[in-house]
Design goal:
The chain has 609 residues and is mostly beta strands. The chain folds into 3 domains: 29 residues, no CATH class; 37 residues, no CATH class; 482 residues, Porin (Beta Barrel), CATH 2.40.160.100. Helices cover 10% and strands 41% of the residues. Strand 6 and strand 7 form a beta hairpin.
Length: 609
């Protein structure tokens, strides 16, 4: 039986108001069940389906802006408040949010270090910078080297042995000031102009145990103090053009400038005078250099440039190209050609200590010219977890008259070196190998001993290694050294800095390993051990007028420590000890059975601003 609302109201004792409310709730529930459920996490009003049902149908209204006539827009009045506030340029904006630091603070924003434009240069433009830096390099070194007694005189009566007392001590203080002026926004592109001037002042003192080892006059004693002011850099650099939107560029640099031929300085590392065109391509994946250099004379006792003398007649033509990420990602390959033209067959040249340097006091002591071309392939980078640096060179040319061979020589020599290393957190282990060809017959018309132009190898321990660090004289073989200071090749030159290259030499093989250990962020320990051998000792037998000595040169052992108290390069203390444990060949040359191993101990403090 169907009951109407009127009957229900009439027969039910509940008030009519309650009945109406119940009926309204039932109607709302029925309507809600007919609607789509709301999306989780959203209110019903956010339900797109419900909004779509409630949205008016038809084309939305469009409001078009009326055309604006610039002539009818009134200009701002001087009294109108500005809608924007000017801010400093991007170099000085830091000053607005960071408290200013003293001008001498090297760790923070500093106008003297090129962090922001230099105000006195503002008349030239808004983006001229001044960059100043200074270095104090203090060295104390004691060593034991084969040292001959004075030829004309000796402080010891009856000292007629060719091997004198070997103790030597060197004290050196070098001050380097670098002044650079740059123009341009150098954050993403090279400077438009750069001018750099680097004067260097050095005071050095050497003490040895025999006379005539420091100066040709034995009356000047066993102590020498010298000072020298040099210009190590003086060049101008102009940005010629950009060749892409990513600032691939070409630039030209003229003047006294640094140059290194490869990643480790095996062939040529110097600051000659010259002109160099350089640039990058392919988003900095390719770099190139085309250059002409002329070598400057060096000060004898400091090894720095001597601009008071006429530049040497030693010319270099250089072309090289670098390709990044070749042959694999993370490895850079370089191809280089260096043509060295030496025309120093003129008058004899004596150094500041009045020793004859060119030609070398060896063989027939006759001046000569030579021309040699170095063809090289070099690499630096990593293959997976293994780091690899490698160099391969071929030297081809002609020596008009080698003083040892006493005839014209065709130069045919080779060189190869590699360092393989791997990092394990705080430890790096290294393996080194080097081969420089030697001359097996000085009189066959072929010079097959490899020599460099001016080497400074960063290899197999470098400064901490005895054989690389020290110049070992070849006593009884003329006025030449077995190897030069900061050099690895036994090239039998009168001087690495001032002498001529010599491709009639015994050559060298080196095999060794080492490790760099970071004990603390401030402390690093370095160790290295290398086995050294001559490739061929025929030329040594000729110079010493004896049977060729053994090829066994010896074992180079070195250990060093580096301390950086501020974990930066501003203060660096280095100390190292090295020894050359003589092999059979070295004992035959220097009677090392009687004299013991050669060694060196050095301490070095670098302060940089």
């Amino acid at each position: 039986m169907k009951v109407t609302p009127a009957e229900l109201t009439r027969n039910c004792p509940m008030p009519k108001l309650i009945v109406v409310a119940l009926m309204w709730a039932a109607a709302v529930n029925t309507f809600a069940q007919t609607q789509p459920p709301a999306e989780p996490g959203k209110a019903p009003d956010d339900n797109p389906s419900m909004i779509e049902r409630m949205r008016p149908q038809g084309t939305p209204l469009k409001y078009e802006l009326p055309p604006i006539d610039p002539k009818q827009v009134p200009p701002p009045t001087p009294l109108m408040p500005r809608e924007s506030v000017s801010v400093p340029d991007r170099w000085r904006i830091v000053d607005a949010i960071v408290p200013l630091k003293p001008w001498y603070d090297p760790y923070n924003h500093n106008v003297l270090k090129g962090d922001k434009p230099f105000e006195p240069f503002a008349k030239w433009g808004p983006d001229w910078f001044l960059s100043l830096s200074g270095i104090s390099d203090t060295l104390v070194e004691t060593r034991r080297l084969p040292t001959p007694p004075g030829a004309q005189s000796s402080l010891r009566p009856g000292a007629n042995d060719q091997f004198g007392r070997p103790r030597q001590t060197v004290l050196v203080e070098t001050l380097i000031l670098s002044i650079g002026v740059l123009k341009g926004n150098t954050t993403f592109k090279p400077p438009d102009y750069e001018f750099r001037f680097v004067p260097v002042f050095q005071v050095n003192q050497a003490l040895i145990s025999e006379v005539r080892g420091l100066r040709v006059d034995p009356r000047e004693g066993k102590k020498r103090t010298d000072k020298h002011l040099a210009v190590q850099e003086l060049f101008g650099d102009v940005h010629l053009r950009n060749v892409s939107v990513r600032y691939d560029f070409d630039s030209l640099r003229v003047g006294i400038q640094p140059f290194i031929s490869d990643f480790r300085g095996f062939i040529f590392q110097d600051v000659p005078i010259g002109i160099r065109l350089f640039g990058i391509r392919d988003n900095n994946q390719i770099q190139y250099n085309l250059a002409y250099f002329r070598r400057l004379e060096k000060d004898t006792n400091s090894g720095l440039n001597d601009i008071n003398q006429v530049p040497r007649r030693d010319h270099l033509l250089v072309a090289n190209i670098y390709k990044q990420d070749f042959p694999v990602l993370g490895h850079t390959t370089q191809a280089t050609i260096i043509h060295n033209i030496n025309l120093e067959s003129g008058p004899d040249y004596y150094d500041n200590n009045r020793f004859l340097i060119r030609p070398a006091v060896v063989g027939d002591v006759r001046p000569h010219n030579y021309r040699v071309t170095y063809l090289g392939i070099n690499g630096d980078g990593h293959f997976g977890v293994w780091n690899l640096t490698s160099s391969f060179y071929l030297a081809l040319g002609v020596d008009d008259r080698n003083p040892i061979a006493q005839q014209r020589q065709k130069i045919r020599a080779g060189f190869a070196a590699a360092e393989l290393s791997r990092d394990f957190s705080w430890l790096r282990v290294r393996a080194n190998a080097l081969v420089a060809s030697g001359d097996k017959n000085p009189f066959d018309g072929k010079a097959t001993g490899f020599d460099a132009i001016l080497e400074n190898p960063q290899f197999a321990g470098a400064d901490s290694s005895f054989f690389i660090r020290q110049a070992v004289p070849l006593i009884g073989g003329g006025g030449v050294a077995l190897s030069g200071r900061n050099g690895i090749l036994p090239s039998l030159r009168s001087s690495k800095d001032q002498g001529q290259s010599n491709f009639v030499n015994p050559g060298l093989t080196l095999f060794g390993f080492g490790a760099d250990v970071d004990l603390l962020p401030e402390v690093r320990v370095l160790g290295n051990i290398s086995k050294l051998n001559f490739v061929n000792t025929s030329v040594l037998g000729v110079l010493r007028n004896q049977a060729p000595p053994s090829k066994d040169l010896g074992i180079d052992v070195s250990m060093g420590i580096q301390y950086r108290p501020f974990m930066s390069q501003n203060v660096v203390f280095n100390a190292s000890v090295a020894a050359l444990l003589p092999g059979k060949g070295l004992k035959q040359l220097y009677e090392e059975n009687k004299r013991g191993p050669q060694y060196s101990i050095l301490m070095n403090l670098l302060l940089t601003y």
